[in-house]
Amino acid sequence: MSDLTPELAPEIFAACQANAEKASEAISRAFDGEFVLKAAEPVDHDPEALPSGIDGPGLAVVFTCGESGAAVLLPAAEGLLPDWLSAPDPAGASKLQALGEELGALLRPDSLAADGTRCEWVEDLAAALTRGAPVRGSKLVSIEVASGETLGQLSLVWPLQKPADFWPTSDKPAADEAAPASDARPAARPHPRDYRELPPYSVSMLQIKVPLTVTLASKRQSIDDILSLTPGAIISFDKPCDGLLELTADDQPVAVGSAVKVGERFGLRVSDIVMPDERYLKVTG
Questions:
Q1: pLDDT over 70 at 285, yes or no
Q2: 6-166 CATH fold
Q3: Res 10 pLDDT > 90
Q4: Which residue ranges make up each domain of the chain?
Q5: Integer Cα distance of 137 and 158 in angstroms
Q6: How far is CA 12 from the centre of its chain?
Q7: Residues 6 or more apart from 27 whose CB is under 8 A from it?
Q8: How far is the C-alpha of 142 from the C-alpha of 155, rounded, in Å?
């Protein structure tokens, strides 16, 4: 099973029910509050009768499975979202990414693997959903969200035919500003905003999969000590228990971060990127 389909409604609803408490905890951590979620039975998604608040701004999570995707929508009009969501700082953006990964894992059946997840603020949820192109016969699970006496609704809609188109393109200026007369230099060509605009060989290289490893701690030990290990033996490391974990790609350090729980799985919240070592070549005359 690789694609989201309307026929998966019973399994997705079961996942929403079973993981409601964990999803509540994920949202509570991200928004620094107390939230409780309760899922309702799935119904047919009607583009002409959108849930309340969807015609305005809010938070969206889109996860893809194969060629299709699903959208999780939480409108700002419900009064449940913190103000920083519309313009998050790096720490806030990291929180949103972690929240997206968690919700993407909790609101789908375990038999379905997510290929990618994105969580961001959207100025017009209805327009974004239209761009995502829900298929004919798509489904909707409404999930009640409560925080104290404030009630709202989180909407899970699937499948989307064009999940990549859900997100708005970069805003363009309404009119080109006149350039100063003294500057006759041609404007530099903008950098590609989409990897698909890169040369074919570069796109091909970006599809290569490399092993990704998280290292808790490491040390050098003599072979004699390793051969003498027995069940129950304890090995101590110099690294403190609250130290950051190292993320490596094909044995090359790329980032450090802290461990997080994503559903029932292990995850890493990246806190810093490790730049590659500088290499110098000696030039001889």
A1: no
A2: Chemotaxis protein chec (3.40.1550)
A3: yes
A4: 6-166, 210-220+240-285
A5: 9
A6: 19
A7: 35, 37, 99, 103, 145
A8: 5
Contacts of 238 (CB under 8 A, 6+ apart): 217, 219
- Structure-token pair, residue 43: 């119904």
Q: Provide the 8-state DSSP code for 123.
A: S
The pLDDT assigned to 160 comes to 93
Beta bridge partners of 65: 68
Model pTM score: 0.60
Alpha helices (H) along 113-177: 125-132
CATH for the 210-220+240-285 domain, from 3.40.50.720, 3.40.30.10, 2.60.40.10, 2.30.330.10: 2.30.330.10
Q: Which two tokens stand for residue 225?
A: 């000590």
Please give the sequence-ordered ranges of beta strands (E in DSSP) within 106-149, or none if there are none.
116-122, 134-147
Task: Output the six-digit token pair for 217.
Answer: 């701690």
37 phi, psi to nearest 5 deg:
-115, 145
pLDDT, position 172? 40
Residue-wise pLDDT tens digits, 140-150: 999 999 998 88
Q: Give how far the C-alpha of residue 77 lies from the chain's centroid of Cα atoms, to the nearest Å.
A: 23
Give the confidence band of 44 by pLDDT, cuts at 50, 70, 90: very high
